[in-house]
Amino acid sequence: MTVDYIFDFLTGLLGGFLGSDYLLLASMLIPCLAIFGFITIYALIVIYAELKVSSFIQDKVGPMGQGVGLHAGKWGLLQPVADALKLLLKEDIIPSSADRPLFILAPFMIFIGAFISFVAIPFGESIIVADLNIGLFYILGVGSIAVLSLILAGWASNNKWSLYGGMRSAAQIVSYEIPAGLSLIVVIMLAGTLNLQDIIKYQEGGIFNWIIFDNPFVPIAFVVYFISALAEVNRTPFDLPESESELVAGFATEYSGMRYAFFFLSEYANMFVVSAVAAAGFLGGWQSPFDGFMSTPAWSVFWMISKTGFLIFVMIWLRWTLPRLRVDQLMNVCWKVFLPIALLNIFGVAIWTVVFNS
Amino acid sequence: MADIVFWIISALTVMSAAFVVLNNQLVYSAVALLFTLFGTAGLYVFLWADFIAGIQILVYVGGILVLVIFGIMLTNKIKSVRISHKSMQQGVGGVVIFWFFIFLFLALTKAPWVVTEAIEPVGTVRGIGILLLTDYLLPFEIISVLLLGALIGAAVLSRGDS
């Protein structure tokens, strides 16, 4: 995979000067740095999209520049850069009654949790950092680091709003992991593998070979997965952990400056991860929607990014359209609606596969 | 390089496990347990048991550790709780530990370990699935029923006397 390509390239370039151990280390570090850069640039773009989409939905103009060289650049394109600079330059405050080690640890943990998911995401045909046998499963597993760090952040802040936010997010993510996981089981059943690249290769040959069009039960599974994923990344209408009107900013209340930026960045990174999993699992990943048309490796990156980007756009769209759920409604939807639907879906897909596909 | 990574992961696992046991604040112990569980998952990866490593993270970190931390953090004034490390029966304990160490050491060095060629398995998920539904079907089903019983029991207990 990518690591092997880089390793071969470096060996050809520097093979005589350095031992293969150093080259292997370097060929593992380079993709990690690339992912880090990708997350940063992607976050800037999505923050801009969030500002603009929200403005258009609310009939405003959003960030604007008043001409050349004035505040936020043309069309306000420099607004996210200004936001990032503001976060970098802000004073970093640790409350005196906070639990210092855990308060410092929590933002790092949540970012690591989001970061290591990217390792298994297929960005294109053979463009993946680690082509894991259990790729889908791995992404589901490391997603649980986010829960832990949100509770830690909420508790370590020593603030009742933070604690409430942390508790709510933990309860919410742990609950919604179940319908999300059960919906992905449908994908695993159809493709017969946990490897994300193999799942995508299974969907080769145009839009009607995508898993979402495989049988009438799968679109339901896709909707259940997407809504559960929305709840897992704490986006509106499921943003109870940081609902401004009740909890100030939830688990992030006491955080400022760069530490807050890590929470912010992780939320957007997690949005990308769940959207990429939805795109890879249901929408054909990097496969072109038209068989054989625009399906070179370079185009595969385009398809993957645009499918993921569309799902992220839907998330932004929902955020500025729907009001927030109540806590009891949130749990009702998860346990009394999504869980039975997801279980019935598995049953339905199994029967469909036996009757029609065998 | 694999050796270095192995030793780093082993050191992380053992040191964080020692921190879990020796620290006297429950919250820090629970957080250190996170690193122990991750280290164990790393060791599974070294044994090519990728599926078990994934399960380790999903179940232990995502389920059990979250519940443990949930419970600890909902406890009132948890930071004022100090778990004491008063040692009792030091003489007897020392003797037992000494002989147990000797026993483990001998078991490790004298046992006729079967050393096989390091071959890279293709993936363990399919094999585990087939074994669970053929040779180990009965244990698998018994564990399912046991877990279902525990689930119903927990629900009944948490309902109270209504």
General description of the model:
The complex is a heterodimer of chains A (358) and B (162). Chain A has one domain. Chain A is built from 13 helices and no strands. Chain A has helices at 2-14, 20-57, 79-89, 100-117, 135-142, 144-156, 160-191, 196-202, 218-232, 244-247, 257-282, 297-319, 327-357. Chain A is globular, with a radius of gyration of 21 Å. With 162 residues, chain B is an all-alpha fold. Chain B has 2 domains: 1-82, Up-down Bundle (Four Helix Bundle (Hemerythrin (Met), subunit A)); 123-162. Helices cover 74% and strands 0% of the residues of chain B. Chain B has helices spanning 2-22, 26-46, 50-74, 90-110, 125-133, 137-159. The radius of gyration of chain B is 21 Å and the shape is extended.
Total domains of chain A: 1
Q: What is the number of helical segments of chain A per DSSP (H or I, 4+ residues)? A: 13
Mean pLDDT of chain B: 84
Major beta sheet summary of chain B: none
Cα separation of the termini of chain B: 61 Å
Topology of chain A as a string of helices (H) and strands (E): HHHHHHHHHHHHH
Spatial extent as radius of gyration of chain B: 21 Å
Question: CATH architecture of the largest domain in chain B, please?
Answer: Up-down Bundle
Q: Specify the overall morphology of chain B.
A: extended
Element string of chain B (H = helix, E = strand) = HHHHHH
Examine the coordinates and then state which fold CATH places here, giving the name of the CATH topology of the largest domain in chain B. Answer: Four Helix Bundle (Hemerythrin (Met), subunit A)
